[in-house]
Amino acid sequence: MSTIDITPAMTTRLRLTMRGRRVLAAIAAIPAAIALGVAILGGGAALASHASGATVHYETITVHPGDTLWGIAQEVAPRDDPRDVVDAIVSLNALDQVTLVPGQRIAIPSEYTGK
């Protein structure tokens, strides 16, 4: 009887040339570039639509000595939660601090002024 000697085929690792690496990197970067472009263009459109479509009605009051945001909130909207009113006033006026200065003019959202 005779025997046949079978040796497993040698497997070689795939080797990429410098050009191949560049092509592979470019192909991998395409989805990221597309996503970035969509985010930039889509974000700008959302920002533009927000700025032009939102109309805020408000009444302006002048701050007197001793006035606080909490006191103003209770005065203009006694039936509403003062925390919500203060938050709306701070947001509308883009206040970075809660200290008011006498003579300062602040806007009160019309939903709290009853007008």
From TrEMBL:
Residues 59-108 form the LysM domain. Pfam families: LysM (PF01476). SMART domains: LysM. PROSITE patterns: LYSM. Signal peptide: none annotated. The lineage of its organism: Bacteria, Bacillati, Actinomycetota, Actinomycetes, Micrococcales. This is LysM domain-containing protein. It comes from Microbacterium mangrovi.
